[in-house]
Design a protein that fits this description.
The complex is a heterodimer of chains A (107) and B (124). With 107 residues, chain A is mainly beta. Helix content of chain A is 0%, strand content 48%. A six-stranded mixed beta sheet of chain A has the order 2-10-9-4-5-6, with no helix packed on it. Chain A has a four-stranded antiparallel beta sheet with strand order 1-3-8-7, with no helix packed on it. In chain A, strand 7 and strand 8 form a beta hairpin. Chain A is globular. Chain B is mainly beta. Chain B is 0% helix and 49% strand. Chain B is built from no helices and eleven strands. In chain B, strands 2, 4, 5, 6, 9, 10 and 11 form a seven-stranded mixed beta sheet that branches. In chain B, strands 1-3-8-7 form a four-stranded antiparallel beta sheet, with no helix packed on it. In chain B, strand 5 and strand 6 form a beta hairpin. Chain B is globular. Classes of the chains: A mainly beta (107), B mainly beta (124). The interface between A and B is medium-sized, with 25 and 21 residues.
């Protein structure tokens, strides 16, 4: 099975900061990588599919990059509503494995 | 809008059974692959099971294989998860999830639309 490793597991940031979250796959998954945002007590929301495709309604301050084994989620100018937990997920295999999550909280 | 509403969660003793259901609306249910994803309290997301549009292809996480069965009824726009031999580690919120797009999707196996979840607690 493919393993997905996110880093960091948590970070503290301020409104207006640029935040970068990394996801590394244990083998190449080409661009089959998705990013989700989950707020406390809520279901996750799909932010980015196929490594770089922003979903409809997602603010342009979110962006994704990468291919192969290394991927990045970037949030420019962090907003109060962005404090949440972010997960990557490989969509290369039927196992649909998630990373362990990155919690973004207020500094 | 896509709506997915789960039901059937509750408390059960180890070794017991539960059947979760998901009622879908707002889209052509028969065109979309469906999944169950769970989240243990305070933990991350874990994909549990997948079913194809016609129900003839099913996949399971190793952690539930042989104990859980996914099924769907396209005439009723419903998705089920039969859970037998429940263990304490099966405790969590179970989400019904629709794939992003149908046939020839640019991003298959993408978990796009989520229900609100139903809580399963396995404890003696």
């Amino acid at each position: 099975d493919i393993q997905m490793a996110q880093s960091p597991s948590s970070l503290s940031a301020s409104v207006g900061d640029r935040v970068t979250i990394t996801c590394r796959a244990s083998q190449s998954i080409t661009t089959h990588l998705n990013w989700y945002q989950q707020k406390a007590g809520k279901a996750p929301d799909l932010l980015i599919s196929a490594a770089t495709t922003l979903q409809s309604g997602v603010p342009s301050r979110f962006s994704g990059s990468g291919s192969g084994t290394d991927f990045t989620l970037t949030i420019t100018r962090l907003q109060p509503e962005d404090f949440a937990t972010y997960y990557c997920q490989e969509s290369y295999t039927t196992s649909r494995t998630f990373g362990q999550g990155t919690k973004v909280d207020i500094k | 809008d896509v709506y997915l509403v789960e039901s059937g969660g509750g408390s059960v003793q180890p070794g017991g059974s539960l059947r979760l259901s998901c009622e879908a609306s707002g889209f052509n249910f028969f065109r979309y692959e469906m999944n169950w994803v769970r989240q243990a309290p305070g933990k991350g997301l874990e994909w549990v099971s997948y079913i194809s549009t016609t129900g003839d292809i099913r996949y399971y996480a190793d952690s539930v294989k042989g104990r859980f069965t996914i099924s769907r009824d396209n005439t009723k726009n419903s998705l089920d998860l039969q859970m037998n031999g429940l263990r304490a580690e099966d405790t969590g919120v179970y989400f019904c999830v629709r794939d992003l797009c149908g046939a020839d999707c640019y991003s298959p196996r993408t978990l796009a639309y989520w229900g609100q979840g139903t809580l399963v607690t396995v404890s003696s």
